[in-house]
Amino acid sequence: MMIVYDSNLQQFSLQVGKASYVMALHKGSYLTTRYFGLRLHGDFLASPFVEVPRSFSPNPLADDERFSLDTLPQEYPVFGNSDFRLPALEVEFEDGSRLVDLHYDQHRIYEGKPKLHELPSTYVEEEKQAQTLEIDLFDAVSQLRVTLRYTVFAGHSILVRSVLLHHEGDAPIRISRVMSMAMDLSLPDYQMLHLPGAHAREREMTWQPIGKAMHSIESRRGASSHQQNPFLALASPTITEEDGEVYSVALAYSGNFQLVVDTDQYDVTRVMVGINPFDFRYLLSPGEKFETPEVTVGFHAHGLGEMSRDYHRFFRKHLLSGRYRDQLRPILINNWEATYFQFDEQVLLQLADEAKEVGIELFVLDDGWFGQRDDDRTSLGDWVVDTRKLPHGLGAFGEQIRQKNMRFGLWFEPEMISPDSALYRTHPDWCLFVPGRNQSVSRHQYVLDFSSKEVCDAIIEQLTKILSQAPIDYVKWDMNRHLTEVGSVSLAANRQKEVSHRYMLGVYRVMDTLTKRFPSILFESCSGGGGRFDPGLLAYMPQVWTSDNTDAIARLSIQFGTSLIYPAIAMGSHVSAVPNHQVGRVTSLQTRGYVAMMGNLGYELDLRRLGEEDRVTIRQQIAFYQQWRDVICFGDLYRLKHPSKQQDAAFLYVSEKRDRAIVTYIQIMARANPALKRLRLQGLATNETYSVTLHGTEQTGIFALSPLTLVMNGDELMQYGLAIPYLHGDFLGCVWTIEKAEIAP
Ligand code: DGJ
Question: What's the whole-model pTM score?
């Protein structure tokens, strides 16, 4: 049993992989967080919760001055009745009152994992892979039922939480804050790790002390955004990749979110995660339910590396969905950085021929194939092929690609509309706007009102038509602006603060419908690169374009940050031209290839302009990646050296069976007369013998190591390490491949 309840102690115990999560009913009805940490062998705590009278912490029970919600570690705190910390739930009743008093009512423990109705869900394929606990808290005055859900999964130190509100009273309620989870923990001297960024600079690993302040990591942009990611870790002071305790939360939601870390006067840290209460208010009528997004909550005692590997496996097994979940992804060429909007059929076919010749498997036609779109000022919404560019139509073009024995992919931006489009001229009220107010453009476009069923249905039909007409194997779903003038003519005045959330529900419905309707299409999500790289979108689209920044060196920190919880198989990663279009840097084709091989390899440059030497290199890269991509996509990642100090970076993938591994080392800035260093590996079998081959130094090492292939024991590789070659120049790299050696008896 992974979840047990002791009715004498009134404690719930959840075995969460190598962790335990214990909750207790205080005074028989207040649900408290008692313990979350390393697995306890006994399920329950014998120690009582110690209470003392505290001045300025009021007492709900007049005869008990030691009891205050202000000092109680709680699982779902509310507003107004003695807890002054930030609540998880805030509602307003018709009479203007805002008080809710939540008491334990009942609970259920069952096998399996419930699916959310309109939101992305983690899942299990067999009921026995998970167990769920639902605890009902009830407010007797308003008849509001709050169900806290906890699912634990076999083999993972990660649980999933969400909340379901059920309004059993008879007058409408306005919800202004409803977090997916809360917990109160003691985290002395812990530090926070989160992933702020910007367009083309996503997910920079950023540490800061928790201190005694409230931190709010949030998005108010209508998308999870480049600027913040709905992920947060709280780590012990001496955390490293291999050692130290780390709590983590990640919200499966792609809209406005909030992650709160708030440490109180007695050093208790409240962690809350959910939909951002900013510009949110939801009207719940009698009998209605409201479901929050899911949040993953992890505890790992062996550093960031263990956390990442657990998330990677967990997301690959319980979040990514569809046929491509377990399939290696095709190596693609995307014409965006090769041609931008300036292409015609002949140019594209030449590019496809070049791509085929070097071994590329999928041709992706990016922005500019529809309407009259020669730049980004027009045509979004008019998903009809531009016959000036593709005179024989999309179907015929796709067929030509297929005849080259390549798959065909297409770019869309379904959530957007250009003011200069037939769609806008016909349906100006289909976008988000507030009548009588100015309407901001961003990249010359408006946002379609996905909170409206009518709009979503129309988009589903438009896309269905194209996806059924042409031989399409892959779709890149882009989203290139954030939400402003958030208003919908499809909703009543008292529901306008529901628009951002309903927008996300609309997006999820459209994605759910199309991905199910076209199960053989591989969908890659994108939002100006990695502006919606979050667990919510991953539930529908198993691959994400990681960043519009394709520079190999800039990509190191973007990909390292992304890899904190997102698996390699989800990361789109391309080799592009030099000087790089975003930063102007020149790096070798070899280094660009090595960095792009940290995820799903693709190319995004004009192959027609390359010389024969570069073509040979690309052909070799592709052949090499084809041999090793299973280890990269399904293996365990070890971040051996972080690029943060701008000196070097190294990462290792080890196959599940520990019989194959691949190590990449990138020197960022060269130093004169450097110290000679070794790279200690991890995750291999200590008593196994491996054949280790060094690649790449023929181009970069002035003192190349020889022999290039050695037979080494796992413990030598992990304890003594690999000698890093002396690389002469900035931005150079090398790779080692490691295979279990067949030793004659
Ligand atoms: C932003 C994406 O991130 C790019 O890869 C490209 O698809 C452009 N949009 C096209 O407009």
Answer: 0.98
